[in-house]
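In line with agreed milestones, work has continued on tokenised descriptions of protein folds. One protein thus recorded appears below exactly as we store it:

>
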Amino acid sequence: MAQKPSIPKGTRDFSPIEMARRNYIFDTIKRIFRLYGFQPIETPAMENLSTLMGKYGEEGDKLLFKILNSGDFMTGLSDEELLERNSIRLTNKISEKGLRYDLTVPFARFVVQHRNEISFPFKRYQIQPVWRADRPQKGRYREFYQCDVDIVGSDSLLNELELVQIVDQVFRNLKINVVVKINNRKILAGIAEVIGEIDRIVDITVAIDKLDKIGLEKVNDELLEKGIPQEAIDKLQPILHLSGTTIEKLAQLELAIGSSEIGRKGIDEVRTLFDYIAGSNLQTEVELDLTLARGLNYYTGAIFEVKAKDVQIGSISGGGRYDDLTGIFGMPGVSGVGISFGADRIYDVLTQLGLFPEETVDSTRLLFVNFGEKEEKYCLPVLTAVRNAGINAEIYPDQAKMKKQMTWADQKKIPFVAIVGEEEMAQNKINLKNMVSGEQKLVDAQELIKILSE
């Protein structure tokens, strides 16, 4: 007995209806990206591991899918190395490539590699799948699409404002009620400096970033486990408890970390960005969240996270500024800022809230019933005219019973059926049936197109 086929955990098939809904998301996002002057690019699904490793932190590196070298990948391995069972060392010898973890690092590689072909500031968008060897669970997949938009080659905080405006417009168009959380990695660096642990900023930010997931007590436990002294953790507590308006939080923060130069710079950047936002007539809620850290090592300035208000799910969009990323690839001094929309989580939110419009299913509008060769010959020119008018239409390919063809049309939710028999051909007409109302009407080809175009 043949084994039942399956797909890897954390991946999914998509039906025609699901694809239509996904395209609704992609089309909405792309339209707004283009509205702001961004241009599309694509990069390969796989990158050299040297491009990917070390860019996402220790936890991120563990989630990279590695690809075995072609041919006999065991060639060159000694018996001692095999017996040692050192997975990291073995992987380095048998795998040179990996599936991309996100679109930002490949984009940085693209910028460096094509620096002589692009004009700066360079504004690009990219909508492609990424892969992470994560534990599959609700809202978290091993293969999923990201919709990224980035600007490189400019330090201006107007770019951060533009990203917030894009977020506002995308989610208003999708009718999802969200909150945009903003912080700045310079503020986090200032906090680390003031509590005397500037060299441990990665450990501190990774732990802080989990605050809303695991709670303050467990965050403090994680900091202790990572070797952060209790005295430093105690100094951190008042900062994690800051409250009030953005202006009030920044004022309290200046008192707490004003002695740190990098911390003061982060506060100034946040204040400027929120001044821009205040004058931009946004409809989306935007808040300063000093516990927001985002675990990726390459962020150096503003960081963003977008959460749906009406659904319990992780962030559905996120990003930030990364001043040093292209420097890793031999092109220092090119600042960039970007944000990524998680299409799969957005899909889940739209599904749970029932927000997909009916017209997202861009299916066939008209089916020609097939009664035989003479009827086919009559219908085919009309079918061509209907398609030339931009109307989705098809003819049933086989000469089957009427009931079978009508059932098929009903299953595909085709709203109109064209019935042509001896009587209709004699009058040079088409019997058009509305599958929703049941109404039938004799029309000629031009009338048919007019009705379907309304």
